[in-house]
Design a protein that fits this description.
24% strand; alpha/beta
Length: 243
């Protein structure tokens, strides 16, 4: 009896599953390459803006009114009474230590805005006290810092609780309303200079220590998995055709 030759047909189910997986893996790799280009541009922007000499905050806010992205511009601003201004507390973690960032309002003129929210710095939970508050104080505080766009809350971000002064996301409008100011700028001014020299527990922290850029590594991982999938599929087909 003559043995029938092995089938040269491609297995439909396995082939479709392999093609779908390849599309997903390659798509993820391409997406990471796009993220790499975006992150590289962002880091270049941060470096060029954050290391420049500070410019008046009102001047930069005027640029924002014409559509300019204000993120990471280094600015200067004089804030009356900032050292004892009322503040809201934004939950934060710094170097593994939980605490709050203290955010107050400062008058500003530029771009049609009347105020800007100033992130004065980080206070760890281990510090038992907070800076004194005196809304009537007017002693000027010269602030140098970086403008930052607020990060949007996501599905795991707890709800803000203005009634107990516990905030988990940078809601400009709600924070400004709590602090009693109107027409706030859409960005935060993260101080890099001390706003409370007599309260050393408040540490200005305008930027994280390092902004990771591992998108090329991730892209190569996805492309590598796609290549491995092709190799496995080819080995399976070769074995079927030889059997």
């Amino acid at each position: 009896m003559t043995e029938s030759p092995p089938s040269r047909r491609l297995p439909i189910g396995l082939t479709l599953a392999t093609l779908i997986s390849l599309v997903i893996l390659i798509g993820l790799g391409v997406w990471q390459m796009q993220r790499l280009a975006w992150k590289s541009e962002l880091l270049a922007q941060i470096e060029s803006r954050a290391e420049a000499d500070p410019r008046p905050a009102g001047e930069i806010l005027t640029l924002g009114a014409s559509g300019e992205d204000l993120g990471f511009y280094r600015v200067s601003l004089t804030c009356p009474g900032l050292a004892t201004a009322p503040f809201v507390q934004l939950y934060a973690i710094k170097d593994g230590q939980a605490g709050q960032r203290l955010i107050s309002a400062c008058p500003v003129s530029g771009g049609g805005y009347q105020a800007i929210l100033v992130d004065r710095g980080f206070v760890p939970d281990t510090a038992p006290e907070r800076p004194p508050v005196d809304p009537q104080a007017t002693a000027p505080v010269e602030v140098i810092g970086l403008l930052r766009n607020p990060d949007p809350a996501n599905f795991v971000t707890p709800d803000n609780r203005p009634d107990t002064n516990l905030w988990y996301s940078r809601d400009v409008a709600a924070m400004a309303d709590t602090l009693g100011v109107s027409a706030p700028a859409p960005v935060f001014l993260l101080a890099e200079s001390p706003t409370n020299p007599d309260f050393p527990a408040l540490e200005p922290t305008p930027l994280p220590g390092e902004i990771a850029n591992r998108h090329l590594e991730y892209a190569l991982t996805w492309f590598g998995l796609a290549g491995a999938l092709i190799a496995v599929y080819a080995a399976v087909i070769r074995r079927r055709w030889k059997s």
